[in-house]
């Protein structure tokens, strides 16, 4: 049962990462990605101007503030939908897997190695294994499946 559980959880982690990446690709268009980059650039410029106390630049950027807030709200809404769908999938799996595996140790850690939230008394439980597999699979999957958006160069003064 334990060997099967390890691969079952790994498979689910990969499936959830693929679904999340696919949903992100469907929900967020290239225009949305460019808008997120624009908002990030705006925030960076505003913070830099505030740190340097450049009031002329701050005033110029404040004129764009309402527009940037509208863009942020639009993107935030799409990100919330994505997060809610992913959470429903995750908690459905988590409920069934936790009932099935509970605190049963799935793997053993090398002696002397302790990872918070992952291992307890040298053993890796269902939740710890799920965290490890989800993050180790979702990062490469998201990198591979994410939309490629060319960033426009920032103007240096």
Overview of the structural elements:
- The chain has one domain (2-145).
- It has helices at residues 2-27, 30-52, 55-62, 65-101, 126-145; strands spanning 107-108, 119-120, 123-124.
- A hairpin with a 2-residue loop joins strand 2 and strand 3.
- The protein is mainly alpha-helical.
- It is 73% helix and 4% strand.
Brief synopsis:
A 3-stranded antiparallel sheet has the order 1-3-2. The protein contains 5 helices and 3 strands. The longest helix is centred in the middle third of the chain and has 37 residues.
List keywords for this structure.
about 160 residues; mainly alpha; 3-stranded antiparallel β-sheet; 3 strands
- What structural category arises from helix and sheet content? mainly alpha
Global Rg: 21 Å
Low-pLDDT stretches: none
- Give the count of helical stretches: 5
Helix content estimate: over 70%
For the record, give the distance between the C-alpha atoms at the N and C termini, rounded to a whole number: 62 Å
């Amino acid at each position: 049962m334990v060997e099967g559980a390890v691969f079952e959880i790994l498979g689910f982690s990969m499936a959830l990462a693929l679904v999340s990446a696919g949903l992100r690709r469907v929900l967020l268009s290239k225009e949305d990605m460019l808008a997120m980059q624009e908002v990030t650039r705006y925030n960076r410029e505003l913070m830099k101007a505030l740190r340097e106390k450049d009031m002329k630049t701050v005033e110029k950027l404040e004129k764009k503030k309402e527009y940037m807030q509208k863009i942020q709200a639009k993107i935030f809404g799409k990100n919330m939908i994505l997060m809610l769908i992913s959470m429903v999938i995750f908690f459905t799996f988590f409920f069934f897997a936790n009932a099935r595996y509970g605190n049963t140790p799935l793997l053993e850690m090398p002696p002397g190695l302790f990872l918070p939230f992952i291992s307890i008394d040298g053993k890796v439980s269902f939740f710890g294994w799920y965290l490890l597999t989800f993050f180790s699979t979702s990062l490469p999957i998201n990198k591979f499946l994410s939309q490629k958006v060319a960033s426009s160069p920032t103007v240096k003064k």
